[in-house]
Amino acid sequence: MKIRDTSRQQQSITMDSDSERKPRVPTKVTSRPFTWGPSDGLQAGGFDRAPTDELRLLFRKGAASFRLSKATRPWIKAQLQLYGIPFTNSDGQPELMETLKKAFRAGKCNAPTPAVEAAERALRLKYKAAVENHHELVQQWKDKKFLELKGGPTEEAEFDVDRFLAKYFLNGLHGQPDRAKTKEPVALDLSIDCHDATLKKAIQAIPGLAFHASDYLSMSVVGWDTELDRGIEREFAKLSSGQKSGDASLFTPTHEATYDFNRFLKKYFRVDVNGVATETQNEKKPSTPVTLQYLPSSGVSLVSEFAAKVPSFCVKHLGLMLYSGGMVLGWDVAKVEAEVARIEEKCRLRVEKDLREQEQRAAEDKAQREEEVRSIYRPHHEYVARKKSEVAKPADLAIDQLVGSYVVRWEGEEGAQYSDQVNNQLTLDVFPAKSAHGVTASFFFGVIEGAMLLALSEREVALLRDSEKKKDPYYEESQANLYVSGVGYGRDDNEGADAINLGYGISTGHGSADGPACPSTLTDKKRRVGDVADPWGVQAAMAKRQKQAVRVKKEEEEDEDKDEQVGSKPLVKVKKEEGEDAKPLAEIDTQPSRVYFQFAYNVVNGYPDVDDENEHVGYLDFDMSSSSGDGVFHVPRWFGRQSFSIFKIDDEPSGDKQPLDWFEFGGRRWGSGW
């Protein structure tokens, strides 16, 4: 195959039309029909060479559809080019596919031809030349940009270390030291120690060049070793005058100590870091103490080391939050202690003032919060006042008394106090009954919202749930599918009410221990669990659940038989929480004002928590007026057992709330559900 070398073709080195931008690193080079780059290697038409094993899977009998769909005309053409197999360029996809198949079966796809390997070597050399050319372009761009900089030495050092050093201290780029070029030290508004390590290493690599830096102040001086001290003195004087430190009276000593501790000691205490006095014999040591504030750990270490060398030097740490890292230094112990006492008294008064202001703000916030809470529950108190004359004597609660609008008190997980947020008020709206078994409601509990079914017994909740499911437009279809699969589920019209779901999450039906044997409408044979016609295991899972339900029902019937023999009411145990004794249902049923409920919800971000096991249940105990109630609900996946209270504010549900369909929370839209 002839490989056409396009030497005049523009290389993949790209310079932006905007000359202000840095030239981009070349990613690949081209020589038709190939490209080569360090990340992609050799390609043709943007495609990699397919391994022999991949081609074997493509050409075997019954190849996967996704492999066949991948074999487009451009892809096949690229494989022919990458393996060096001749072909007719005008051929279509079927002809090219046949050419590639014949070449593969003839063993021509085990390795590329020598011509292709030679083309790859040529492209590698071409890329190497492109990288070298890119380096030259970058140097030219840096030369131009460096001359255009207006920010002085600091900006120059940050832009390019080599050009900065060449401008001030070398006879050329990467040249030799030139002491005559810049005699005065150069000040930089950056810390060499904290800056890119290349700057520090580059300075240390030049004989005779030195620097002095302060990490705390981001100040540095670069110069020849014989002249550097003069530059340090000049920058120290700027600190003393306030040119660098801003408020000279407050932070100047601290800045001076962190920039050059030796000069700081000489200025304020007439002694150097070795403890050698700098004053004459007739001069007295300064008695005025000096306060350092917010001293970094490196500065604290310097002070401690000096105090250890000079025992007569007094150092008192403040240790107050206002002066973190602060200390008072001086020769006169009495004056140092007096200054410490003055500062601490000042700090104490300031702290007391801050505490008073905090307490005042806290009291104001508390009063505002209490008013917000009152505003939330005020409608309930008004409702109770209106109904006060109507409060009847204690009697069994009627289901229609639940209808209305409620505010909810639920502290939530970790005491989040959701209900006290005016803009996030928790609500429960109960709608008029449309079923003899109970009522439905819509709720918003801050982090969850959804539908609720309420009734006067657990059984009626289950019956209400079953009737709500039948409202699903897909219910009849789902039941038909279950019977076709040979798994009986739900209610059989010939069996009566005993075949309806009983209790929380217990589905029962008559039949053998292995479940009802419903014939298939197609084969008149029962479908076995694990049948190849059930590849996803849906029918198997339903059969397993049905078998478990039948077993539970059988156990319940045995318990009922025992209870009838002794003339007692069945003591059906309800699920108990950790550390809580299970209460018999007989005891619970003696609560005349207790309402049971089950709920389905979405998290506020829209995701459902599908309750396949019917575990999202709870109860409410109402007061004699039926205007408020306390209860618990269970969300095993997130919260476990939670206590909450509801307070009625109106006998009608809120106008902006509508009943929610129970089946909407089954998770079907997310690919799951009952």
Automatic annotation (TrEMBL):
Keywords: Coiled coil. Residues 1-47, 548-569 are annotated as: Disordered. Residues 348-375 form a coiled coil. It comes from the Eukaryota. This is Uncharacterized protein. It comes from Cercophora scortea. The lineage of its organism: Eukaryota, Fungi, Dikarya, Ascomycota, Pezizomycotina.
